[in-house]
Write a structure and sequence with these properties.
The chain is an alpha/beta fold and about 325 residues long. Helices cover about 40% and strands about 15% of the residues. It has 12 helices and 12 strands. Strands 3-2-1-8-7-6-5-4 form an 8-stranded parallel beta sheet. It is globular.
Length: about 325
Amino acid sequence: MSITPQLGLVCITVSDDVRYRTVTRKRLLQFSREEQRDKLRELYADNLSRFNRAIDFCNERGIKLYRLTSALFPFADDEAGAPLLDEMADQMRFVGERAIASNLRVVLHPDQFCVLSSDSPHVIANSIKILETHARIFDLLQQPRSQWATMNIHGGKGDRTERLASVIRDLPDNIRLRLALENDEHAYSSEQILDAATRAGVPFVFDAHHHVCRECQSSYNHPSIFEMTAAARATWAQSDWQLVHISNGREYFNDARHNDVITAMPDAYREVPWIEVEAKKKEIAIDFLRREWPRGRVTADSFGQIFCDIEMNASVINTEADGGSASKVESGMAVEV
């Protein structure tokens, strides 16, 4: 199989092109119920227009994968915000259909409060409520009820595989048909999440960096990376929909903190169609990777120190790949220095 992986933008940009607004609960509660609705109505409309601009940004950059922020409509799962979504149905349809017409795949990563494996029925119920809101937003945005419009979560409380799978199997279709599970470096290993995903009948979003952090591995070409990438692919209803994540450690290879850009990539990912780039420099990281990965300067073992100046130009000394020469990301384009 020979493919060109699509590299995805995660939520916002380093520049001001794609940013979203929010409001805290403390701030919102300072106002009457009617005022809360008015403020949320204005915020929702503004954030929807910002998502519309995010579609333009991705189109201009040739980006075909975009992770929508899970905070697009704050308090949409609350009585203050929920009714406003119906008011905006026409506008949401318009923006969502623009994404579809642009062939932009839109996915979502709900926050850490979604814990479907909790010992507490209250926590599980609240987690399902959060997921119902996200699914409702995707429905209003006309996103398909399928693995294409992935909503991926972590396993949550460890050693609860059967409970996790059981809760997922009973979810409403608009959640379950979009849901995926991702490994992490703490509670659920890749093998454990693969097991849970298989039992639940949902896909496995493999994160190679979580994997090397948890397993204390020193290379993205460890045999288990190839094994888990292939095993995860088999969980997708369509193999060309497989989605994975990549990040690099900030100060050392298996540092769980994310680096500014990506300087090392698993060879196994060359056969993956969709990759979310979880790097702090966002679009700059995508531009850097687009140039350097095909040229062989970014490899499974080319992890290097990244330096970013005040203008957010990134330089990397890539000793493994090119004998110590430097590459620099400048205004979104990688140039030799």
